[in-house]
Design a protein that fits this description.
By secondary structure, the protein is α+β, with helices and mostly antiparallel strands. The chain has a single domain (4-126), classed as 60s Ribosomal Protein L30, Chain: A (2-Layer Sandwich), CATH 3.30.1330.70. 28% of the residues lie in helices and 28% in strands. The protein is built from two helices and four strands. A four-stranded mixed sheet has the order 1-4-2-3. Helix 1 packs across helix 2. InterPro entries: RusA-like_sf.
C-alpha cells in the first residue's frame, strides 16, 4: 500500500464520556445507546472544526489514559469505529469504506489525570 500524505491534518478530540471497549459484554440496547452517544459527540466535534471534506485518509487514534497503568489502546476499537461513523456523518470524509479510509492505527498518548480521552488524527493521503 503506497500512500503519500498531502499535508492536510485534522484532529478530532472526543469529549470525556463513557467509552466502549472490546472487553465489555453489554446488553444490546445499552451498547446501542453508548454507540449513538459517541457517534453524535464525534459528529459534533468534527462539525465544530468547520473543515472542508477530505479525500482518502489515514486515521490514528491516540488514547490518553487516566493513569500510568499498562493498557491496550486497541481495546477501544468499538469507540473509535463509532467516532469514525460520526466523522462520516459530519461529512469530513464521504464514507469509511476501503477506498476512502486507507488505515486506522492505535497508539498510547500521554497520561491525562482528568480522565481517559481520545484524539483522532485524520491525515489526508494521496492513493
Amino acid at each position: 500500500m503506497n500512500t503519500t500524505q498531502t499535508g492536510r491534518t485534522v484532529t478530532v478530540a472526543l469529549p470525556a464520556m463513557p467509552y466502549l471497549n472490546s472487553n465489555q459484554r453489554l446488553h444490546w440496547a445499552t451498547k446501542a445507546r453508548k454507540t449513538k452517544a459517541i457517534r453524535d459527540a464525534a459528529a459534533w466535534a468534527t462539525e465544530a472544526l468547520r473543515q472542508p471534506p477530505m479525500g482518502a485518509v489515514e486515521i490514528t487514534a491516540v488514547i490518553h489514559p487516566k493513569t500510568n497503568r499498562r493498557f491496550d489502546p486497541h481495546n477501544l476499537q468499538p469507540t473509535v469505529k463509532a467516532a469514525i461513523d460520526g466523522i462520516v456523518d459530519a461529512q469530513l470524509i464521504a464514507d469509511d469504506d476501503s477506498s476512502r479510509l486507507v488505515s486506522v492505527a492505535f497508539c498510547a498518548g500521554e497520561k491525562d489525570p482528568s480522565g481517559t480521552r481520545i484524539d483522532l488524527i485524520v491525515k489526508e493521503v494521496a492513493r
